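User: Run a structure prediction on this.
Assistant: Running it now.
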Amino acid sequence: MASLVAVAALGPPVLALTAVRSHSQTVGLTSAGLSAGGQVFKLPQSTDEIWHGGLSSKTGNDDEKASVSRKLATESVAFHFSLQGLSNSLDEGWSRRLLKLLDSFHYCFDEVLLTIDPQHGGKTYGPSYLPGPYANATEEFLTSLAGQELLNDAQQAFTSAAEKLKVHCTGRKAGSEAGVAGGVHVIDYASPKTHSLLAQAFDLSATLQSSSTDSPWSDSPALLQKLPASAKDFLPARMWKNSLMYMYAVNSASSQLLVHADADIDLLSTGLGGGARPGFVESAARALAKYSEVASVGAPSCYRERDSASPDRAHGAEEEIPQVSLAEAAVQGWDCSNGGCERLGADLIVALQTTQDATIPVVPYISTKLFVTNLARFKSLWPLPHWTDQTEVLLMFALARKHLKHGFLQERSTDLCFD
């Protein structure tokens, strides 16, 4: 099977077709989860299980169509998996986690996108700046041995994901002869289209602070002095290390909804409810359709949720907001044990956080490790404020400014939880 690779920025990509073999041998795995011979690691799978979701392929016989009709979706859904330029060493075993996520979601995605974000500097915890390269980051990545290896691994992983979907998605686009849409994308930091996306997705104007008032990662004079001279005119070097990658994925997807997962995510609690609960993607899509004020939905927490079954938790009921700093929340996650949560029916929990910004004193908490978003609503957040701040922080302010929310599924709403 051939895998599709887009080594480009946005718009019509430059395409390269590479033939990739795939086998089920699992001996001598590399850090990406591939065998020493380059074959893709495959998890054991039941070939007779038909997954939910996915748009109809509009082909096949009547019996086949009838057998999958109750599982079909009405909106197209893309699955996005992000890789850093050093993922073979930083995110060991990412290929196995990718396939495990597909098994955990048991959903027939219409599109699968693997985005590689080349090492390009950027802000990180400390705060400090990561080393370059900068403007020529993509060129250096593509011409390096490590870059070529990661690109090849990503191609093979996409092929394996497409084959898995074809097995479980009879009667859907992903199970058709053409297979799932999408492919492997490498962000091209030298492309004018990437520069255009940067200006479209982030508020780069001087009228708004580049970071929030109470952010420990603000652009202080002392921090800016640490920025190398060669990075002064390269805006992504000042941004949080992978902020642009999320916007790139949102802009690249052709579907209506997008499921994003970081490469280091590993779901340990799956199959909850003994098969009686709906899947994560189905529940999130249903919640997005039900609540127009919700832009994105995260997986339920395995332990942060408290007293969610109380009968007095009515729709829209607010509790006391805890005095936890925004910075602490961005690092440690949300917690309702001290209040500060709004429950939307029996479906979602919206975790609220206080800020030191008098114009936006309360914001909804969001985690970017695993979430489902309505792409039109997500793009309505653009241009994002505080463009150099930590990704979750700038998204929290963006949601509050647009009077939108990020909700977490309540644990009983789906068959997995995450933390």
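Residues 293-419 form one domain.
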